[in-house]
Structures are given as C-alpha cells and as structure tokens.
Amino acid sequence: MSSKDWIEKDYYAALGVDKSASSDEIKKAYRKLARESHPDHNPGDTGAEERFKTVSEAYAVLGDEKKRREYDEMRSLFGSGAFRRNARGAGQPGGMPFDVSDLFGGGAGGGDNRFSGGGFTDLFSSIFSGGGGGGGPARPRGPARGRDVETEVALDFEDAVRGVTLPLSLRAPGVCDTCHGNGAKPGTQPVACPACHGAGVTTRNQGSFSFSEPCRNCQGVGTIVEEKCPECHGTGGVTKTRTLNVRFPAGVADGQRIRLAGRGEPGERGGPAGDLFVQVKVRPDELFGRTGDDLTLNVPITYAEAVLGTDLRVPTLDGTVTLRVPPGTPSGRVLRARGKGVVRKDGRAGDLLVTLDVVVPAKVSDEARAALETFAAQTPPAAREHLDARVRRFS
Ligand SMILES: [Zn+2]
Ligand SMILES: [Zn+2]
Description:
By secondary structure, the chain is of the alpha+beta class. It contains eleven helices and 15 strands. It is elongated, with a radius of gyration of 37 Å.
C-alpha cells in the first residue's frame, strides 16, 4: 500500500514546501504544522486530526533522506502529474483517478484484493522494504524481533563425546553501546510517536474498507527518535564481534543443531533478540566411529585367533577393556563392551561395539605354508555344495 500512496500523495504539498527544500526547511515546516494540527490542541476537530495524520505521514518520508530519495525516484518514474492529488484529498474515498495496480496486470478484478494481491505490491515492496529489518507481514505492535543467526562449529570427536565449552566468535549485529539500543542520541530519549500516539498501529479508511497497519511514522515501534544516535544512526544496532561461550553437551552428534534462545541478533530499538543456531560438525576420530550413543571400533584378528579363540585388549575412550573372542568366531562378529560408549548427561551410556575383522596375510613363510597345507589336509572342505550344484548346471 505504501508504494501506491507514494504515487498518489504529494508529501511536499502536504508540508507546504518546495521539492528542493532542504532537510532543515522540511523539519521546520513539519514541526509548525504538527503543532498547529495536533489533536491535543484541537479536541474534537476531525479535520485537524486528518491534517495531523497527513503531515506526520509526509514527514515520515521526507524527513528521512533515504526514503525521500526513493519517493522522488518513484514519483519521477510514474510521472507524478498523472496521479497527483492535492494533499488534503489524500486518504479520502472517491477521488482516485484509477487503480494503479491495473498498470501491472496484477490483482485485477477490483474488490478488496486490489490492495493486497497483485504484482504491484510484490514488485515494490521488495524495493522499498529495504533496511527496515522488518518487512514481511504486518506484525503486531512493538519493535521488530532480531534475526536468528546461524553458525557452524567443528568439534573434535572426543569433545563431542564428553561435552565441551568453546568460545565462539560471531561477527554480527549487536546492541549499540552508545545508545543501549534505543537509537536516540545520548542525552535524548525516544518520544511517543505523534502519528499513532504511541500505539504502534494506525487505522485508515479507504473507500468502504478499513485497514489496521503498523504505524508508518514509527514502523510500529510506538516511539520515534528525533535525534539519532551518531554511532548506529538510529537503528540501535551496530556490527560487532561477539564472543560467546557455548556449552556443547556430552554426546552432541554430527549434524545436530543447537538453539541458543535470545543469543541471535538483537531486536531493533530494544526489540527481543533472535536465536542463535549452532550447526555441529564432528571431526572423525582415527580409531572410533559412532552410531548414536554407541562407539564403534574395528579390530583385525588372525585366522588362528578366530579359530582358536583369544582375549583381546582394546582401547576405549578413557582406558582399555579386555574382550573374550571365543574359539570358532566368524569374521565380522560384533562384540559388545557394555557402558563403554558415549556417556550422556543423565549418566546413561552407550556401548562399545567391536567388529572383528579376520585378516588374510598377503605373504607367509615357508614354514607357515607347510603348516597350512597340513592344516588344509585335516580340514573338511568349505560348505559350498549348494553353489556347486548350480555351477554344474552350466557345465
Ligand atoms: Zn507511530
Ligand atoms: Zn546507537
């Protein structure tokens, strides 16, 4: 809706200033008109109230250098002549020359959707919502919540298993130290917004429709900053490097996302902060793998050990454990050392899963070969009859 207003409304005329007026002249004109038409000075005078709104709306745009530039560009783009209406008529029903959204083919068909749907709004909201940190759908009153921040941290395997506290450096917007986030120059305070009387929302009538929207004069905050903080230019935030100590709980897993509520970007002008999301990457360990709370370990054994059985002493994360390999253990058998896995904060622990891997030597000595041949002669053939039967069908 704002872009439509910008085309239709002559804010310069509303303040009675020339297009080339300096920002000081604009400010002076606004102060004078706002004083004259202020509802407190004109109780019950709806005309004055309307003028006061118009003046505040005009100043919200022309009093902001960036918005003023955008407004000037937009009006030259659309030839203000075609759309020009005098300021007093602005906001009153009926006088609209034609629906601007028709130009863009969006939301045609009239009715209420000409204000909400359509390419026109989409096209321009992306240009003009810039910098506000709010944008998007109309929010209820109050300063905008800060954005969520996403970051990634690589943990060593053992740190992830045991838990660790790490300092985390984030280069991100933070609360301005000069004004403590309220955006006002030190020694001054934000004042109640004259357009919405601090409510943060305004109700407007357009034809037979009534709209409630975040106050444009104060962007829904309810207060305005007259003298901006020099450090943050009135936004209440500055970019800074923050260091946070983040506690990663024991057992944190690769790919896990940790949410730290309220540790994201601060809200604009004292609004609530966003959240910080830390994406955890766990560096692989050279020995251990991990499946949930279980640790995994591959242990090579010889054929003789698999056949004859043996006791294996294997490392755990913080010591060793001896595992019994019974005689006749097949390759790939998994042995379980209970409680030697990841210990959670609640004291419950996973297991260490040891996979036995029978290795075949690439080379053997003559003595070993002779022994193996003797062994082979004493051993029944492998159980492959079921395969041999199938092989015979093709020979
Ligand atoms: Zn306001
Ligand atoms: Zn500041």
